[in-house]
Amino acid sequence: MKIIGITGGVGAGKTQVLSYISEHYKCRIIRADEAAHVLYGKGQECHEKLVALLGERILDQDGAIDRRKMAELIFQNQSLLEQVNAIVHPAVKNYILAQLAYEQEKNEADYFFIEAALLIEEHYDEIVDELWYIHCDAAVRSRRLAKSRQYSMQKTQDIMKGQLSEEEFRRHCQRVIMNNGDLQETYQQIKDIMGDKV
Fold first, then answer.
1. Most CB within 10 Å of its CB: which of 6, 118, 186, 191?
2. Do 102 and 156 share a domain, yes or no?
3. Is the pLDDT assigned to residue 39 strictly greater than 70?
4. Domain count across the chain
5. Residue 57: DSSP 8-state
6. Of 157, 166, 89, 165, the residue nearest 123 (C-alpha)
7. Which of 20, 7, 28 is nearest to 189 (CA)?
8. Do 102 and 135 share a domain, yes or no?
9. 35-43 LR contacts (CB < 8 Å, sep 24+)
10. Is residue 99 domain-shared with residue 157, that is, in the same domain?
């Protein structure tokens, strides 16, 4: 089973790429964001630690972590953001490693994909066989995010500023997939790398 990391800036289209891959190849896909959401759940590893750090103001009426409330609290506070990341990122990595071990034991998938914005910063290159960078021009990403997530130009720029530069992504990744709009071109690049459908 080949282990591949998928990364790229916000709005680059990582989800689109993985949707195509999931439909056409025998693989397991795990997204760091989804793993984190599992770990935020009541009784899960991160829940109690995050409530202890940020207080009950991040909880909804059922006592679950409200991700929107938490994001608003930490987005402009670098110190809090770093403390949250120190709780969440190691837990997510351990979760992903456990899922990888499970899939390796099952031995049914040809590929195991890990998708995260911080694959490089969190040293997932030590886990994966290859890192793929999904590239999309900043202007296209801004338009996509305004349409799909109703992000303001300022919010998109703030997020982009906090992410790695184009040069850094390219320096660390073995493959670059261009995803500026024509999905058939994007899918052809994937087929060129992975071959036709399984």
1. 6
2. no
3. yes
4. 2
5. G
6. 89
7. 20
8. no
9. 35/92, 35/95, 35/96, 35/99, 36/88, 36/91, 36/92, 37/67, 38/95, 39/88, 39/91, 39/92, 39/95, 40/64, 40/65, 40/67, 41/65
10. no
- Mean pLDDT calculated for residue range 141-159: 86
Alpha carbons 169 and 152: distance in angstroms, whole number: 24
Helix (H, G, I), strand (E, B) or coil at 29: strand
Q: Which of 5, 39, 19, 13 is nearest to 178 (CA)?
A: 13
User: Rounded mean pLDDT of 95-99?
Assistant: 96
Taking 90 as the threshold, does the pLDDT of residue 117 lie above it? no
| Pair 42, 58 in one domain | yes
- Cβ-based neighbour number of residue 62 at 10 Å: 7
Helix (H, G, I), strand (E, B) or coil at 139: helix
| Domain end among 87, 108, 129 | 108
Residue 197: what pLDDT?
64
Tell me if 198 is assigned to some domain: no
Query: pTM of the entire structure?
Result: 0.89
